[in-house]
Amino acid sequence: MRSLCSAVAGLVAFVGALGAQADTTGPPRPLFTWRDGILAGGFVVGTIAIRPLDARAAARLQDSATQMNRVMTTAAIGFRNIAVPGSVVIGVSMYAIGRASGNHRFADLGLHGTEALFIGEGVASLIKGLVGRARPLVDVKNPDDYQLLRGFRGDDKFRSFPSGHTVAGFAAAAAVSAETSRWWPNSVWYIGPVMYGGAALVGWSRMYNNRHWASDVIMGAAIGTFAGTKVVRYHHTHPGNALDRWLLNFSMSPSDPRSLTLSLIPLK
Question: Where in the chain are the domains?
Fold first, then answer.
């Protein structure tokens, strides 16, 4: 069973690493490319392949010996909190610090990472509502408990597919990897694996906590990866977009020695 969990994490990290390479420097690319098709196909294949093993993986992770492992329990809590609310806190803080210090790259990364998080979570929330899949905590032996639109009824127990925490982890990983690969092209070989590996552990933590099936994690990874890479690619192929003009290029300048005036006129 340990090999199964390793395979889930490995598959997510490997397919995610492909996404990390989608935004290296070079000529401008369209928003969607053939590489994105390969990436999407990998996630679809991964979700379908893991699906028959959902119940077995969940049962193994809920084994009493596994649940009594203090290292795993502590790690699961830590990775869960790093993803939500940690990713939002980190993204907003990076944006604020970057703006205050005049570090455009820092602000850029914070803004685009946070935007990717909200877009990814919005898509995931819609799918959760539509699919209405029961979480493993409802019945760890029944991963086939779906009901159309049940997820919109307010009971969180039926909002399992996909994993929102995994979306957050992979959206942050994708945004960071895509941004840094533009600044330092060779960084894709070490920043990407580290970021995506951490995101894979977020997905594992949700399975360990009996909140998600393995297939929930794979789909959450797909949504997060696409949210992060597409947000970064869009902004860098549309440098004059309204969001960047207003949130990255506004100026704070003193109009009087005794006061500081915030100018909302975008800089050119």
Answer: 2-252+259-263
